[in-house]
Amino acid sequence: MILPEAIKELIQKGAIFYVSHSGGKDSQAMYSNLCKVIPPEQLVVIHASLGEVEWPGVIDHIKRYVIHPPHIVSAGKSFLGMVEKRGMWPSAAYRQCTSDLKRGPIFKCIRADLKARGATIAVNCMGIRAEESNARAKKNPFSLNKMQSCKTRDVWDWLPIFDLSTEQVFQTIQDAGEEPFWAYADGNERLSCVFCIMGSKNDLCHGARQNPELYRKYVELEKKIGHTIFMKGKTSIPLEEYTGISADTNLRR
Ligand code: SF4
After folding, report:
1. pTM across the whole model
2. What tens digit of pLDDT does each residue of 23-76 get?
3. What separation, in Å, do the N-terminal and C-terminal C-alpha atoms of the chain show?
4. Which of 33, 90, 151, 155 could form a disulfide with 1 if both were Cys (CB 3.0 to 4.6 A apart)?
5. 42 close to ligand 1 (CB < 6 Angstrom)
6. Is the CB–ligand 1 distance for residue 90 below 6 Å?
7. Edge-to-edge, what's the strand order for the sheet holding 43-48?
8. Which of the listed residues 191, 196, 229 should we mutate to test ligand 1's pocket, taking the one with most ligand atoms within 8 A of CB?
9. Class for the domain spanning 5-166
10. Which residue has the CA at smallest separation from atom 8 of ligand 1?
């Protein structure tokens, strides 16, 4: 991994690098690469847990492969509780789930940890890659986070594996002598919430078969609030219709 000069300078200045680790392949490859170039005492792992809506076992998977004890953070509310209260699911345009349940707790942890160390520079490392989507490809891989910076601290956002392909990500994990989370080998393309509002049909169907009780909760919540996760134009598409899987007959494989 070739480090940009700006990152080398931040290391020299004592910046703390906070790795947002979801347990997915991109986080895993990012952490593996960062361990080779960032002094261990300047590296911190954070996992924003979404509780019951994330893949069971993901925290154990993270712990298995990191040498830095991860900070497991969470918001004071659950994903499904948040949806029910609002009466609507989040959408790509209004990702309240990411902002409230992931970004918020992660930055809270960063601010507290930075203060406790007496450090003043944080680098928020995220495993976002250009190849994932057109919107992601337009992101700046290194920028000052003005919202989180203030007189007493600088917070930078860095995407260390921005240019890696999916193949390179899996290769990085393999080269480190590690395994990606089991759901990939079993068919998942991405690892996020089991039923991500932006998930592929493949991942939603796999998630439903592996997690029938959680699937039922999503299906029932759609009915309860009268709002569906997916739409076609202005037409609602219930989750069961979208996946073709009935919550009543869905049995764990
Ligand atoms: S994985 Fe999907 S549903 Fe879960 S918080 Fe992220 S965007 Fe929202």
Report:
1. 0.94
2. 999 999 999 999 999 999 999 999 999 999 999 999 999 999 999 999 999 999
3. 40
4. 33
5. no
6. yes
7. 71-73, 43-48, 16-20, 121-125, 154-158, 142-144
8. 196
9. alpha beta
10. 97
